[in-house]
């Protein structure tokens, strides 16, 4: 099936404006007659829930954390892009749009990306009005920095805690609506199924994580803003609780899953220390503005970094990509790090690391400037590794960070299931095959503040479906499914802990479907994941009961979904016979090791349809049109 | 946790309001302690001087009673607010820690709930001792000097005075600093100077006040 | 990583079945802990071993493990977030402990933070304090250019210092009076220092403090334990600012209804 993204046509610059002018509206007095469900309270969820409540809708918002303020958007460090051109360096909406399409390796929808670039400026205005304490210049105006993959300074930041500050802004807006009674908040509540009646999304089934109570919530539309599925790899920079359950459950109920194989491996993370490692910590990409990345020229060089003379160092990013150097986009930098480590030139325990060296910039700018710029990051590094980065170079290694894939949505952010909207990282729409730094915050807030408030009205205005209540057979059935699954997980009483199986799955994914992928490896993974899944359902041990707070039970449910989702990632990676962005197929590369796209065959979105357990999912496509930006080979040399 | 809503009632007097009451009454009491100390230095200038000072104070009833009423009101408000806050603070942690290590709290802040009542007991005894005269038999309403000498000749009484003055010093140091914090006058810029001035002031108050019983016991004042 | 080694420790951990039930300390011997692992990774190990024996794991709140989400909340040897200054529990590493050490782990203890299970407490009181007034009332789409209102860099920096709060609750957990004033003061300061926060400055502080009192937090006795425990190094100065704003608002703000209602 060929999917229709329902993108407006005509001149790119006015598509969103004209679309807004042509979509249907709901009378202010009628908005309070609609109820909406928002799952997730990160940047997209909190901003969306707050904005919709401000408009007058009744919103129920759900999150698994104990407070909406803890959603993992909070961990974004570096910044948020906007085309303000405050620095007078030639930035514009078009340039941000162009950079994002190109950065995404020409696998994103032009219309969506243009809209994203367009509303980026409104986001900054909104956040400042809320009291987000962005970094400022002495004159009192906003400061900017440049970020990986961009040649202009368009990134707004709040120290190394930009995500936190933006989320707190959205969270405060959300709490204001909670206080006003327009949003009903359900923290520590996990969505475990989507209720679909006659092909329309009508509600969700949730489990109260404190009491274990399973209940259903019905609404006129359901929005998922549940983030990405990076934890499918076990080790990632995601929070421990991040999971793919909400989108996966929706997928099993009919929502298409688009481009699952587009996973972003972030180049600057702290390397793994041992097998008890529970997660990977990201070091902001902004460090690459002043740090130089290198490895020894010689294989197996065990000398201390300071003892290796300049001539015996390989500043490989500067060598390979002279115009971008250490600021090359994430996918390229990560792959380059993997390459040098595969060559046996990696540093640190296990040779899985490269140096990020500040000696030169400390010499040039002085330690105090570096401390002012990155002090908190240096402290964090020192806390974790017990090494002082002012004296010895940091060691970094790539780690799974962000997933560009997600549920398929049209231009209105609605999935193929009417009434199901997907926002932020949970959808697939704006980043193509690779996300540029400081664009995730932009997209989450764009979707929540400035897109969904318009597009959901258009859907609601098209007429209400027949009224249903909790006694509807489809609602009952969904609730029963959830209860059965909980019981089943608790009754297995096997020998393996959830984490041990999750680690096994994650390692397989990292090796076969990580930074480099090939046909044989993917086929092997597709064969082995069902075996691990079988082992899980036969031999997992979930202690405790379903009637109270049970961390193991929560984790088991999430892993059960990853065990299915990861297989889809591999299937998608196998089917996409090209290299693009975060998806690097070793068979498809240029002679000098760069990604080789196949625009003829793959300039499309792959959207997978669930066909039931044990059946192969079906791959649908949506052809991508490039009208404003011409398809070209990305070059950062 | 599906939205546990707090059912607690809003107290009539908020915690900051009560603390402001303590701070303002604290200023009054600070002033009294200081003036009282300065007045008492006249003990060292002989019986005529200090007895004359006492007679002067009593010769202006509006001043005397005005001061007494203000002080009584300040003490009562100070104690009432402290008691209310203390009860609330106790209730705020119904189950304590098996192991709690203090990182910042010094001795003066941690002993406020002890030094306060010790000072209250002292004040009661002090009034009985030197104002009402019911604490000892040789009391004279006009001869303050003799009252002091006789009173402090008792080692136990003097010991209690010394102890109470140390408590007062602690209380005034932390109370004085808290006063700036409560009234929002504390800023990082003046934090160190304020602490220094308070330390000097409290030391002077303790040393001077403690000097009276010691001087009597040492026979310097007789 | 230079000095990585394995140590053996003994834990005394608070276990509590559920809200309202009686909890107590339970001892566990934990051999073979890498000093490179984080405190939470050490507890992961303990939990894996418990489950291998068929026991229920210790319930802990944690999420990002990067020191920013504010979920982790353990009182370690009598100090919220443990012995290392300016460090959340998740960023605390086992190299801060020594061979043979006994480590006591308790949940945040406060009436306003009731225990849900083991070391997990309910901190929704903090959310309700924010809902009472910890925001700027602007709807989406205000449309004023971000650079239209300059903010002195110094104020922006001070506001950021206060806004760094992660809402973990360590301040109230550390305070001998279980007072939440550092948390409330941080929000009052963050918004009160910016021009965007001025219109609601008085209303905000009054409502937030009222909610704070209603939640059952204690009062400040200026001991400084909150400041010492705060993983984001928020200063006592924010409490002074809150007190100043509160007293000012109490004195100068007209009672509700005193202003003439508009109405078209």
Question: How is the secondary structure organized here?
Answer:
The complex is a heterotrimer of chains A (637), B (222) and C (264).
Chain A: H1 15-22, H2 28-31, E1 35-39, H3 43-55, E2 58-62, E3 80-81, H4 93-103, H5 110-130, E4 155-156, H6 162-179, E5 183-186, E6 189-197, E7 200-208, E8 214-218, E9 221-224, H7 245-252, E10 257-258, E11 263-269, E12 292-296, E13 313-314, H8 316-320, H9 330-342, E14 354-357, H10 359-365, H11 367-385, E15 394-403, E16 406-407, E17 420-422, H12 440-460, H13 473-492, H14 498-513, H15 519-539, H16 551-575, H17 599-602, E18 604-609, E19 618-623
Parallel strand pairs in A: 1-2, 1-9, 2-5, 9-17
Antiparallel strand pairs in A: 3-4, 6-7, 7-8, 10-16, 10-18, 11-15, 12-13, 12-14, 14-15, 18-19
Helix pairs in contact in A: 3-6, 3-12, 4-5, 5-12, 10-11, 14-15, 14-16, 15-16
Chain B: H1 15-40, H2 47-59, H3 61-92, H4 107-110, H5 112-132, H6 144-153, H7 155-182, H8 188-217
Chain C: E1 6-15, E2 24-34, H1 39-52, E3 75-76, E4 79-80, E5 102-106, E6 115-117, E7 120-121, H2 124-133, H3 153-163, H4 170-174, H5 181-192, H6 201-214, H7 225-229, H8 237-252
Parallel strand pairs in C: 1-5
Antiparallel strand pairs in C: 1-2, 3-4, 3-5, 6-7
Helix pairs in contact in C: 2-6, 3-5, 5-6, 5-8, 6-8
**Largest chain interface and its two residue counts?**
A-C, 86 and 84 residues
Bulk shape of chain B = globular
Main sheet of chain A: which strands, in order across? 5-2-1-9-17
Count of individual beta strands of chain A = 19
Tell me the distance between the termini of chain B.
Answer: 73 Å
Give the helix level of chain B as a range of percent.
over 70%
Shape of chain A: globular
What characterizes the major β-sheet of chain A?
Answer: 5 strands, parallel
Uncertain runs of chain B:
1-7
Mean pLDDT of chain A: 95
Report on this model:
The complex is a heterotrimer of chains A (637), B (222) and C (264). Chain A is built from 17 helices and 19 strands. Chain A has helices spanning 15-22, 28-31, 43-55, 93-103, 110-130, 162-179, 245-252, 316-320, 330-342, 359-365, 367-385, 440-460, 473-492, 498-513, 519-539, 551-575, 599-602; strands spanning 35-39, 58-62, 80-81, 155-156, 183-186, 189-197, 200-208, 214-218, 221-224, 257-258, 263-269, 292-296, 313-314, 354-357, 394-403, 406-407, 420-422, 604-609, 618-623. In chain A, the strands form five sheets. Chain A has a five-stranded parallel sheet. In chain A, a hairpin with an 8-residue loop joins strand 18 (604-609) and strand 19 (618-623). In chain B, helix 1 (15-40) packs across helix 3 (61-92), helix 5 packs across helix 7 and helix 7 (155-182) packs antiparallel against helix 8. Chain B has a single domain (15-87, 110-217), classed as Up-down Bundle (3 helical TM bundles of succinate and fumarate reductases). Chain B has eight helices and no strands. Chain B has 222 residues and is mainly α. Helix content of chain B is 74%, strand content 0%. Helices cover 33% and strands 13% of the residues of chain C. Chain C has 264 residues and is an alpha+beta fold. In chain C, the strands form two sheets. In chain C, strands 2-1-5-3-4 form a five-stranded mixed sheet. A two-stranded antiparallel sheet of chain C has the order 6-7. Classes of the chains: A alpha+beta (637), B mainly alpha (222), C alpha+beta (264). The A-B interface holds A 66, 184-189, 208, 210-211 and B 1-3.
């Amino acid at each position: 099936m060929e999917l229709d993204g329902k993108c407006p046509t005509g001149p790119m610059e006015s598509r969103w404006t004209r679309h807004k002018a042509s979509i249907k509206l709901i009378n202010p007095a009628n908005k309070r007659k609609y109820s909406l469900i928002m799952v997730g309270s990160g940047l997209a969820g909190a901003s969306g829930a707050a904005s919709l409540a401000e408009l007058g809708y009744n919103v129920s918002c759900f999150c698994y954390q104990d407070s909406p303020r803890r959603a993992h958007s909070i961990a974004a460090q570096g910044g948020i892009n906007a085309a303000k051109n405050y620095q007078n360096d030639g930035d514009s909406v078009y340039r941000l749009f162009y950079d994002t399409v190109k950065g995404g390796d020409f696998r994103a929808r032009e219309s969506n990306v243009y809209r994203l670039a367009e509303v980026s400026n409104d986001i900054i205005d909104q956040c400042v009005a809320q009291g987000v304490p962005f970094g400022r210049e002495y004159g009192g105006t906003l400061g900017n920095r440049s970020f990986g993959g961009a040649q202009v300074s368009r990134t707004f930041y709040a120290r190394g805690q930009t995500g936190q500050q933006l989320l707190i802004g959205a969270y405060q807006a959300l709490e204001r609506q909670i206080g006003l009674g327009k949003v009903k908040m359900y923290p520590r509540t996990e969505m475990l199924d989507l209720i679909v009646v006659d092909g329309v999304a009508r509600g969700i089934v949730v489990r109260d994580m404190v009491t274990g109570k399973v209940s259903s919530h019905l609404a006129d539309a359901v929005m998922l803003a549940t983030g990405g599925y990076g934890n499918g790899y076990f080790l990632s920079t995601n929070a421990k609780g991040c999971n793919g359950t909400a989108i996966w459950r929706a997928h099993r109920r009919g929502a298409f899953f688009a481009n699952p194989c587009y996973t972003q491996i972030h180049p600057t993370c702290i390397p793994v220390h041992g097998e008890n490692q529970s997660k990977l910590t990201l070091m902001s990409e902004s460090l690459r503005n002043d740090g130089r990345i290198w490895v020894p020229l010689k294989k197996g060089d065990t000398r201390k970094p300071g003892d290796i003379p300049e001539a015996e160092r390989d500043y490989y990013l500067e060598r390979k990509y002279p115009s971008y150097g250490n600021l090359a986009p994430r996918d390229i930098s990560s792959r380059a790090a993997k390459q040098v480590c595969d060559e046996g030139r990696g540093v640190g325990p296990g040779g899985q690391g490269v140096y990020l060296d500040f000696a030169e910039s400390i010499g040039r700018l002085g330690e105090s400037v570096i401390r002012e710029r990155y002090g908190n990051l240096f402290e964090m590094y020192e806390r974790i590794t017990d090494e002082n980065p002012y004296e010895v170079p940091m060691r970094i290694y790539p780690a799974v960070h962000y997933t560009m894939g997600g549920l398929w949505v049209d231009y209105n952010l609605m999935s193929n299931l009417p009434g199901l909207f997907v926002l932020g990282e949970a959808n697939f729409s704006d980043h193509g095959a690779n996300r540029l730094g400081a664009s995730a915050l932009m997209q989450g807030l764009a979707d929540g503040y400035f897109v969904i408030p318009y597009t959901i009205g258009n859907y609601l205005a098209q007429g209400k479906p027949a009224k249903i209540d909790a006694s509807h057979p489809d609602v009952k059935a969904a609730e029963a499914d959830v209860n059965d699954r909980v019981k089943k997980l608790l009754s297995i009483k096997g020998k393996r802990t959830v984490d041990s199986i999750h680690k096994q799955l994650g390692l397989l994914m990292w090796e076969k479907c990580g930074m480099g992928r090939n046909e044989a490896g993917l086929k092997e993974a597709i064969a082995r994941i069902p075996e691990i899944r079988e082992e899980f359902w036969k031999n997992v041990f979930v202690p405790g009961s379903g009637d109270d707070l049970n961390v193991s039970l929560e984790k088991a449910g999430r892993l059960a979904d990853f065990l299915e989702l990861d297989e889809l990632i591999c299937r998608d990676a196998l089917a996409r016979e090209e290299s693009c962005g975060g998806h690097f197929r070793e068979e498809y590369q240029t002679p000098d090791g760069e990604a080789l796209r196949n625009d003829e065959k793959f300039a499309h979105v792959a959207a997978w349809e669930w066909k039931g357990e044990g059946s192969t999912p079906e791959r649908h496509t949506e052809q991508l049109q490039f009208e404003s930006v011409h398809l070209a080979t990305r070059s950062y040399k | 946790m599906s939205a546990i809503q707090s059912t607690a009632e809003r107290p009539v007097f908020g915690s900051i309001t009560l603390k402001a009451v303590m701070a303002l009454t604290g200023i009054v009491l600070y002033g009294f302690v200081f003036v009282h100390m300065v007045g008492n230095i006249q003990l060292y200038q002989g019986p005529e001087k200090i007895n004359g000072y006492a007679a002067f104070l009593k010769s202006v009833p509006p001043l005397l009673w005005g001061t007494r009423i203000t002080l009584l009101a300040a003490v009562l408000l100070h104690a009432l607010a402290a008691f209310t806050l203390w009860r609330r603070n106790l209730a705020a942690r119904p189950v304590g820690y098996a192991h709690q290590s203090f990182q910042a709290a010094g001795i003066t802040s941690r002993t406020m709930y002890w030094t306060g009542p010790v000072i209250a007991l002292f004040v009661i005894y002090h009034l009985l001792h030197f104002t009402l005269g019911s604490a000892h038999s040789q009391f004279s309403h006009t001869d303050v000097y003799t009252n002091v000498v006789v009173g402090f000749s008792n080692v136990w009484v003097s010991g209690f005075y010394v102890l109470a003055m140390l408590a007062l010093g602690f209380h005034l140091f932390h109370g004085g600093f808290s006063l700036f914090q409560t009234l929002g006058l504390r800023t990082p810029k003046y934090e160190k100077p304020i602490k220094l001035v308070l330390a000097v002031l409290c030391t002077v108050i303790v040393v001077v006040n403690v000097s009276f019983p010691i001087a009597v016991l040492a026979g310097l004042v007789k | 990583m230079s000095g990585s080694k394995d140590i053996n420790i003994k834990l005394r951990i608070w276990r509590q079945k559920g809200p309202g039930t009686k909890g107590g300390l339970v001892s566990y011997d934990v051999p073979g802990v890498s000093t490179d692992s984080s405190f939470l990774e050490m507890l992961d190990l303990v939990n894996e071993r418990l489950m291998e024996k068929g026991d229920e794991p210790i319930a802990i709140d944690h999420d990002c493990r990067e020191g920013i989400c504010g979920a982790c909340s353990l009182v370690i040897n009598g100090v919220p977030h443990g012995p290392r200054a300016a460090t959340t529990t998740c960023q605390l590493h086992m190299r801060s402990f020594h061979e043979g050490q006994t480590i006591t782990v308790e949940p945040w203890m406060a009436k306003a933070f009731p225990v849900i299970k083991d070391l997990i407490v309910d901190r929704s009181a903090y959310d309700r304090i924010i809902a009472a007034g910890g925001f700027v009332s602007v709807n989406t789409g205000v449309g004023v250019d971000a650079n239209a209102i300059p903010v002195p860099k110094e104020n922006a920096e001070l506001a950021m210092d206060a806004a760094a709060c992660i809402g973990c609750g360590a301040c109230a957990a550390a305070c001998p009076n279980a007072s939440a004033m550092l948390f409330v003061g941080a929000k009052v300061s963050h918004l009160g220092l910016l021009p965007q926060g001025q219109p609601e400055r008085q209303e905000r502080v009054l409502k937030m403090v009222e909610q704070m009192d209603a939640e059952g937090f204690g009062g400040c006795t200026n001991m400084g334990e909150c400041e010492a425990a705060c993983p984001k190094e928020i200063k006592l100065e924010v409490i002074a600012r809150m007190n100043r704003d509160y007293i000012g608002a109490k004195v100068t703000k007209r009672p509700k209804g005193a202003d003439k209602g508009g109405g078209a």
